[in-house]
Amino acid sequence: MVVPILFQKARKVLNNERGEANYFSTLVFIFIAVLLLAFIIDLFSIISTKQELDHAADQMVKQIQLSGGINSETDDLFDFLCSQIEGAENISYSIDATYKSPRPSGMTNAIQLGSPFFITIEGDAKLGGFWNFDLVNITVVARGSGVSEHYWK
After folding, report:
1. What are the domain boundaries of the chain?
2. Where are the transmembrane segments (predicted)?
């Protein structure tokens, strides 16, 4: 008995064509504004994550340039930089370079003096609002490039 009365009142409010704002339209406007605010804040966190990944790529490039390749220090630096990044999961890196053969001791892969290399760091970020609904998965990518500054005999 109460439900049909509520439906009738809701229908009257929705069909009202007077030029003034009513409670229902104000409530809908506030709800949309809050959702938009949540989206904008979440979008800024993804932009911040992208900047952090760009910084990590720059640091990795500097380390690889000075050491002349990939070694345990490179992996330690990457692990440290990943621990500082918030907002991204499953962060990984890959390096595209021409490696020196035979490999020097202590190096996973050595890059000869003057050889260019390219690093790509990828992480998964989620866009979902205040409540972390994880509505949209976004892969955030940062790239860097450099030239080895180490001569291998």
Report:
1. 2-13+23-147
2. 21-41
